[in-house]
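Example 5.3 — DUF1439 domain-containing protein
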Amino acid sequence: MRIVKRCIAAITILGCIMQPAIAGYNVWTNEYTLSRQELQSVVARQFPTQLRYAEVFDVQVSHPQLQFAPEKNRLITTVQVKISSALLLQAPLNGTVTLSNRLKYDSTTRSIRLDAPNVDQVDVYGLPAQYTQQLTAIGSLIAQQVLQNYPIHTFRTEDLRIANKSFEPGAITVQSDGIAVEVNPT
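Solution (predicted structure tokens):
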């Protein structure tokens, strides 16, 4: 009976070890991984937000949805926008803005941050053609004020120390369902 209990305990421990972590260091690949769920949760903290453009347009930005572009090594964020202007629009306009960002490591704050935002696509329903340029500028405003340099993960000291060895983040790779950060011994 004692042997059976030990076998069950060993299998349970092995099962816990073999479970994929939501985020954490993988000793086999020397990578620290962050999942879609974790990243989505962090980016969602920035929303909803209100912006004002050219003292004429009020822009409500909400409901960010993350996608991953491994082929471009960029994180893509699509947000819903509602644009209103008492001076120029009879009714608010609704649509989406799709932005992409590179990722960078900031050693001072030990954080991974969004960098080099780009407006990839703007879709606003019922938008008069003469406002296309302003809408693209509104997308840039969202990118610069809401997402530029936004920290999506901050490493704790213990995240970068294992068995009295210190590590430093290196290359950041966007994968199909999260990101991987190479960690190198210092």
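Remark. The domain at 22-185 is CATH 3.15.10.40 (Bactericidal permeability-increasing protein; domain 1).
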